[in-house]
């Protein structure tokens, strides 16, 4: 089993920056790709960014050029650097991970709130 714990959510003004962290523990060897998802009130959860075990990355169009996903395997930690934040980035951000050989996100964290307010 894998446990994921996010941190770093906060209140921030437009144009500000935040770095989210996701600490993984347990059966780390069961993790393949990892990703950050978000869910805003009244909206469906969406994939924001993904990074594979070989460090290949994917970003949603809405965050390209502003967000950067990275992982420190030695620390078993996933990061999301968010710059030039916009009001539309307000959401609960979730860390998730897949098992080897699967595209499904099996493991999920509890989420961390990011609020961008004017």
Can you put this structure into words, describing what you see?
- With 118 residues, the protein is mostly beta strands.
- 0% of the residues lie in helices and 52% in strands.
- Strands 2, 4, 5, 6, 9, 10 and 11 form a 7-stranded mixed beta sheet that branches.
- The model has no long low-confidence stretch (mean pLDDT 95).
- Structural class by secondary-structure content: mainly beta
Largest sheet: 7 strands, mixed
* Beta-strand proportion: over 45%
* Contiguous helical run count: 0
Total strand count, please? 11
The SSE string, one letter per element, is EEEEEEEEEEE
**Helical proportion, percent range:** under 10%
Overall pLDDT metric: 95
Radius of gyration, in angstroms, nearest whole number: 13 Å
Poorly predicted runs: none
Taken from the alpha-carbon principal axes, the silhouette is globular
Q: Any descriptors?
A:
mainly beta; single chain; 52% strand
Q: What is this structure, in a nutshell?
A:
The protein has 118 residues and is an all-beta fold. The chain has strands spanning 2-7, 11-12, 18-26, 34-39, 46-51, 57-59, 67-72, 77-82, 91-98, 105-108, 112-116.
